[in-house]
Structure formats: structure tokens, C-alpha cells
Amino acid sequence: MERTSEVSGLYRLSIAERRKILRDWADLTDAELAAYDFPPGIDPGIFDRMIENVVGSYAYPLGIATNFRINQKDYLIPMAIEEPSVVAAASNAAKVARAEGGFTAQTTPPIMIGQVQILDVADPAAGRLRILAARDALLETANAQDPMLVKFGGGARDLEVRMIPSPRGTMLVVHLLVDARDAAGMNAVNTMCEALAPDLGRLAGGRSLLRIISNLAVYRLARASATFRAHLLATDSMTGPDVVEAILDAYTLAAVDPFRCATHNKGIMNGISAVVAATGNDFRAIESGAHTYAAFQAKNGAVVKPLTTYEKDRNGNLVGSIEVPLAVGLIGGATAVHPTARANVKLLGVKGAAELAQIVASVGLAQNFAALRALATEGIQRGHMELHARNIAATAGARPDEIDRVVARLVSEHRIRIDRAKEILDELRASGSR
Ligand code: MEV
Known about the structure:
Radius of gyration: 26 Å
Bound molecules: (R)-mevalonate
Largest sheet: 4 strands, antiparallel
Order of helices and strands: HHHEEHEEHHHEEHEEHHHEEHHHHHH
Number of helices: 17
Oligomer: single chain
């Protein structure tokens, strides 16, 4: 009989019963099933309540970036990421920045935008004014949805009403501006938008449809900057000032070419997403917001803009800065329940979401500086290749005491392949050199 993916009631089964279904479906061995196991320290019940149809956990490596000093405070920064070199690169960049005092970072107030779409408005310009005239009552209704947020100093702050021409007629789009304090804000904003939508539709003389947060959090920005001393950037073949010029050239390509800009901003997100994920925040929301902001800010016919900027200061040192929407929270969501996220927040020792956003922005800048520095000098592959070679050596069966020697040979021969790693291992073992 052909197997079917219509497994009804999977959600009602226990984790063990769901796993049995997987085993039968894919003929998984006991060892493969064990790869789904919950690590010690994680209560399966917590994960089972976080999402649906849970069968286990998917573990990411968690690395610690060192050397970070941000606004005169030192941090050890947890990064959850599968890509080699990222943690080392961030740590190296932070070390260079440290010589000039580290990163200086700031945030705007944590204002999130909720959107309510209103259709079929006969007189959109007048409808807009009818909504704006009812501003105070609307904000009161919004705030009545979340007394706790209001108690902590947050809540709905203002309304904007946009008129957007579209192929389906002019739409009114109401933006509810909500101070989310230490939360990312999704639940508070969505609840408020849903509560306001009927009134907004009535006031406009149309009907409301979408009621949802915008991830383009243009009012909730984090910014960071750092100075990288030129003489610390010198390599065997380039002087520090040469490297500064090369980094400026590399950066400039991102400013004028979307193909490069996509990769430039991706490198920034290597740092940002890794910290955002490690603290249980919604990295898809942050990524979508960052990339859309990069497009939103583009000027003069450009379609996208680098999220960082580089300049040379009076002393010839390189100065980098970043500005990015960062709606990260500390309360609510996975941050509050995921045990590893909670431990990571404690490790960071942050007092509020703004401080977390400042850290995240600084790591994004550090990551980008490290990538540009590598690209503008020896290229990215050497560092990558060494880590790649470690993986290959381990996969070929090298024991911990053999890995360094196998890696050295693979790298020096520029042949980082599993068959070669096995040959080298055989040679090493045959010669008894362990
Ligand atoms: C790789 O994950 C990220 C880089 O490609 C970023 C960049 O090119 O700037 C190295």
C-alpha cells in the first residue's frame, strides 16, 4: 500500500509515538533516531509546548564570541550558527575594535508598527482624517488590550494613516505605533490591531482586512560604530593604510552593486542572526526587517543599500558603523521559555531589550568588518578551508589526537577531500606516528 503523509492526530500522540511513526516511515536506525534526542538540560515537555508535532530537538553548535566591549562594558557573546569561521571572525574583529575602546552603540525607543489594511473606502483622503480625528479614543482602546505593557511604561503611542494606490483601488493603511518595551512586540501589536480593526473600518467607511505587525521596524533601530586602527590591519604583504583603502574599495562595491550588497549584508546577518537565535528571538523577523530596510533606505536609483558604512577618520583609521531595525525582546516568546536561550541571556547580563539590540548590532558590524578585511587581504577561503579540513578529517575517522596533523597536510596540499584525508590517516597510522 502506498504510504500517505495524511497522518491525522499526530499532535495527539506522545513524542515516543511520533518517533515510532518516523522510524517506520524512513526506516530510521536506532542511532538515527537517537539524533533526535533531547539534550540533557532540555525538558522535552517545554519543546513539546513550543511548537506542534514535536519529535525531538535539532541541535546547533553554540559558540562564544570573545573580546567584545560595547559602551564600556565587556561581554561574552553566545552565537548559535552552523557556519565555520563566523565566531572566530567576530572575536577577531572585536579584538581590533577593542584597541580603540570597542563599540559604541545606541537604540531608538522600541516602537513597533502594526498595520491595519482598510479596503473599499469611497473617500480615502477624508477617511484618513476621520481616523486621525479619533486618535485618542483609538489609542485608549489599543492600550486597554495590554494593561501590563502600559504598566511597564509601554503601549500604543500614535497612529499614522497612509493612502496606498493599488491595482485593487486605493487602500488606507493604518499604522499603530506601539512602544513594546522589553518585548519583541508581536503579540501586543497584533492583539491591538485586531481590536482596533472594526472601529477603523467603520470610521473609514470601508472594511478592514489585514491586522498584523510590520517587520520593517523603522522606528526601532539599533546603531553601532567602532574604529579599527590602521596599523593593526597590516598583513605580511600589505601595510595598514593599504588594507584600509582595500576595505573601503570592497565596501564601495556593496554600495553600488546589489549583487555584492546581498552578500555584504548576508555577512552582517551571520553575526546578527547567530545572536538573535541564541537568545531565542525570531531571526526570520529580524532578517526580513533588515533586508527590507536595506532596500527601503536605498537612494538615487539604487535597489538596496549596505547596512554598514565605512569611512576613514583624520588619523587614517577605519571607522565602521551600522544601523538596522532590531526588534529583539527579552520577555515573551522562546526567550522566556527555552532553557538555553535563558542561560544565554543570563550570560550576556543584559538589563533590557535595548542593550541586547546594541550587542546584536555590534556583532553585525564586527562580522562585516571581519569579512571585508579577509576579502580585501588574503581572501576568505584560507580560514574557511582550515575549519572545513577539520570536519573532513573527523569525517574520515581521525581521532582528536590525529586531527591537527591530517588538517595540516590537507591544507598544505590544497586537497581538502575525504579520500585524501583517509589516505593521510592510513599513512600516519602505518608509520606509527600518532
Ligand atoms: C559568508 O557567510 C559571508 C561572506 O560572504 C560575507 C561577505 O562576503 O562580505 C564572507
